Hints:
By secondary structure, this protein is an alpha+beta fold. Residues 2-13, 15-20 and 26-30 have low confidence and may be disordered. The protein has a domain at 120-206. It has a four-stranded antiparallel β-sheet, with no helix packed on it. It is built from two helices and nine strands. 11% of the residues are buried. 19% of the residues lie in helices and 27% in strands.
Amino acid sequence: MVKAIFSTSWRIGRAAALALGVAVILALVAGMASTAFAGNGDAWKLGRSNVATAITALAGSLGVDGPMLRLTNNNAGTNDTALDLRVQTGEAPMTVNSGTKVDNLNADTLDGLNYTFFARNSFYKTEGVVNEGLLLGDGTHKAIAFCEPGDVLLSGGPANINKGTTLLESFPSQGTVGSGTQHAWTVRVDKHGAADTFNVVVLCIDQFNP
């Protein structure tokens, strides 16, 4: 009888010890995993992934005489940067609250055009003839002005319109002059039966100006 009781107690003890051992192992694994990265409220862990679901702010009432944060990458490779900003498609990688020029922050292109394009080209304005415009079937009138052949249209619009005339449409377009197609600006107005002359003005880039 005594032997049976000790045997049962031993089995219970072994089971309890096994359960305790598993619990300790799980606690250690969870603890090690939690130290692999920092979360909200934790200190940043260098060389490891850090996780945050709230804004991390760095500020001070007196500020700093110089940069607030400096990142230096001294790796000898050719593909190294000091900062890598990644966002979802269509989102800006950063925002700023100052319009002050930043030295050495260069933009290679503007609307897909390199700075050399603007350096070698000049802008010019041209106007269409002031007249009644082309009468359309709905009683409205249309006028158009063209850039020179091969030149790029920047903007355009109507001119010399009386205040009683309603501007219906004003948009970039293309037209045929001679045997070629040129960039242009088209305007359509409603004169409401009154006599009115008007024209169209366009701003263009001369691509062939040396």
